[in-house]
Each structure stands twice: as structure tokens, then as C-alpha cells.
Amino acid sequence: MLGKKLVTAQKRGETRALCLGLGMVACSMMMYFFIGITIVPFYTKSVWTTETVCKVLKTNVKDKVFCPNSEDSQDEEIFPYPCLQVWVNLTASGQEVMLYQTEDTLERNPKCSYVPDKLENSKEVKARIETIASNFKKYQTFPCYYDPGGTQTNVILSRLYPSKGLLFAFLWPTLMFTGGCLIIVLVKISQYVSVLSAWQ
């Protein structure tokens, strides 16, 4: 009687462990799919792939412009802000080009190097842009990214999804997938050993 209870408890434990392993594998597959349709397209679409050194030539803060500068933008998303323009010397080619914060900045407004998030307080936006401008004047040389193919003549300060960020995004689903597969393999080994012991 006790042996039957132990066998029943063992089978229940194996079933739960197998369900856990299958669930981890399924969740990791969903995470892979989500990363594949969100982060990977932005990473592959970016042409600013080569890092170089940029030196600030001049910074300029123009009068207020409106953001975003796109035709499909809604009226409530448009707000005025000072337009910061930063021109740098590209070390790789020696050209004078305009600097943008990220790839998204160029798409939102190609006239400005920095596009702030929508804030209710215009003074806070102005103070932030002035701080960024002063930092560029203070730190004249810094790493930046350019397009080695030459399709984009401008440069960006940082990529939205760098290579390290992409690898980090794939790290967690990979660990979950590996753990789920390991649990499934251990359950199958345990079942095989149990059947082999019973047959002997």
C-alpha cells in the first residue's frame, strides 16, 4: 500500500515537473517571438553600425519648433520646444555632419539634434536642452556612430538597440529555454530509470 502511494506521488511530481519544463519552453518561445518582432527589426534597420570619434564644431539653439515633425502625428502630441543643433567633425572621414541623439530623433525631427519627451513644463524642457548644449561644449570629443555605407551622412550619439542590448534581451529567454529543456530531460531520465528498475 505504501509502495503504491510512493509511486503515485512520484508520478504526480514528474507530471508537475514536466508541465513546468514545457511551460518554461513555451514562455521562452513567446519571448523570442516578441523580441523578434519588436527589437530585431529596429536593430537590423539601423545603418549607424560603426563607432568612431566625433569632435564638436558648433552648437546652436534656435527658436521653438514643433514636435513631432511627421504627417501622421496627432494634434495633442505636437508641442513647441527649443531646437538644439550640434555639428561635429567625423573623425573617420573628416566631414562636418549633424549629430542626432538616436535613430528615433532623426525620424521625429531631422532639424534638431535632440527631441525631448512631451512635458507640461516648458521651463523644464528649456533647462534640459541648455544643460545638454553646455555638456557638448564641455566635452568636445566623444564616441558616436556613423553609416559606413554612406546612405546617411549624419551621425548619432547612441543606438536605441546596440549589440550588447540585443544579446542581453536574448539572454533571459535562452536561460529559460535551457532550464525548461533540462527539466524535461531530467524527468525523462527519471521515468526511464524507474521503468528499468521495475522491469528488473
From TrEMBL:
Annotated signal sequence range: none
Main location: membrane
Keywords, sorted A to Z: Glycoprotein, Ion channel, Ion transport, Membrane, Transmembrane, Transmembrane helix, Transport
GO annotation, cellular component aspect: voltage-gated potassium channel complex
Key word Transmembrane present: yes
Homology family: Belongs to the KCNMB (TC 8.A.14.1) family. KCNMB1 subfamily.
Name this polypeptide is given: KCMB1 protein
